Amino acid sequence: MKNMMKMIAGIVLSAAIGGIGTSHAQTAYTNEALKGCYGFLSNSVDVAVGLNRSTVGTICFNGNASIIPNVGALDQTGWWQNTNGIPLAVAKVPGNYAVTNVPGQGMGELVFGAPGCGTYAFSINSVDPGTGIAHGFQFSLLSSKGCTKSPDVVGGTAYLQP
Asked: What fold does the segment set 28-160 form as a domain?
C-alpha cells in the first residue's frame, strides 16, 4: 500500500510539472489558414427596427486576404437570408480578410457584403496539421457602417466544404 501511494504521488507530481501528456507548439496563423469555401449559418437581432435575420450561405477565401466573389459552380460566395419572413438571395459578394492573431491566436477580421458594409471578428478552429487550413471558424459582427437596416448583433459558425 505504501509503495502504491508513492507511485500515485509520483504520477501526480509528474503530471503537475508537465511530465505526462503531449505538448502542442503554437504557431502564428496567417491568411493561408482560410482557403477554400466554407458553408455558414448566422443569426442576428436588431431590436431598434425589429429585424431578425437567419442566413445560410457560402463564403470562399483565396488564402491571400481576399474573398472570392465569382458567380459560377465553383468558388462562389453568396447566401440566402430570411428577414422576418422575407427571403433574399445575395450572390457575387466581394470582400477581404486578415488573420491578425489579435486579440487572440487565430483571430482576425473580415469585411464583406455591400462595399464596407459589415466588419466581422472571427476565430479559426480545427486547423489541419498537414495543410494548415482551418476546418472552420466562428464570427461576430463588429461594425455595420454603411449598411441600410443592418442588425445590431450577428453571430455564426462556418465549416470547410470538401
From this structure: Lipocalin (2.40.128)
